[in-house]
Amino acid sequence: MVKPPTGGTDEGRPKPARLKTAKMRTPSQQAWLERQINDPFAAKARAHGYRSRAAFKLTEIDDKLRVLKPGARVIDLGLAPGGWTQVALERGVRDIVGVDLLPVDPLPPAHILQMDFTDPACGPQLIELLGGPPDVVLSDMAPNTVGHRQTDHLRIVGLIETAAAFAIEVLKPGGVFIAKAFQGGETAELIADLKRHFVEVRNLKPKASRADSSEVYIVATGFKGRG
Q1: How far is it, in rounded angstroms, from Cα 1 to Cα 14?
Q2: pTM confidence score
Q3: What are phi and psi of 63, to 5 degrees?
Q4: Which pLDDT does position 26 carry in this prediction?
Q5: DSSP 196
Q6: Active-site residue flag, 195
Q7: Does the pLDDT at position 159 exceed 50?
């Protein structure tokens, strides 16, 4: 168990740590690094051996749903650097395959595919590696941003829709789809489509999602089939 930091202000909260030098860093890089240093979930992830703080988002979701079970087949979309796959393995999943554009260090017995998920050839390869249709499709994908708000927004929505369409195409009856989305992301049409195919669809914001982030997770359970 990670002990809470001590010292700091009179209220018992630690003073935020600041990097001693910002040499060769942009202001946004400096802010990101300082946020990581002061992030309790990032510290917990390092202590637990998780590759990313995002692992705690999935642990909280799964504590509510209990979908990561021994015997479940799982596909992890956008798995880099591997935190969600680590959680699935930790909870007894052995049939799991993940895909990402970035290289990911091995996480046996998981199969890892370095590929563009939007490539039409990717889906069949994932199913082949998994050995059959999944019980759970996870997506923590986020597109590369270009700095243009409207363009980035369209990329985000498009990626979520692609992941949802894939899940609807391949899931077993009773299956689960969990995907990162963003509040205000114009996902009403997507939610409506998911409600036609799943018994329950809801939004969850895990504690590990930063309070100032619009990030939420769409959780669709009880897949009813493609009809």
Answers
A1: 19
A2: 0.79
A3: -60, -30
A4: 63
A5: H
A6: no
A7: yes
177 three-class SS: strand
User: What CA–CA distance (Å, rounded) separates 220 from 116?
Assistant: 24
Give CA separation, 218 vs 67, 91, 107, 143, in Å. 15, 21, 26, 17
Q: Evaluate whether 34 touches 19 at the Cβ level (below 8 Å).
A: yes
* 8-12, 78-82, 129-133: the lowest-pLDDT one: 8-12
Domain boundaries, the chain: 20-49, 55-223
- Over range 196-220, report the average pLDDT: 86
State yes or no: pLDDT of 25 exceeds 70: no
Question: Which CATH architecture is the domain 55-223 placed in?
Answer: 3-Layer(aba) Sandwich (3.40)
Q: Report DSSP letters for 27-79, one per residue.
A: HHHHHHHHHHHT-HHHHHHHHHT-SSTTHHHHHHHHHHH----TT-EEEEET-
Residue 204 identity (one-letter amino acid): L
Q: Which helix (DSSP H) or strand (DSSP E) does residue 179 occupy? A: strand 176-182
CA distance 141 to 146: 16
Quick: pLDDT tens for 36-49.
Answer: 445 665 667 676 77
Candidates 15, 69, 180, 205; catalytic one? 180
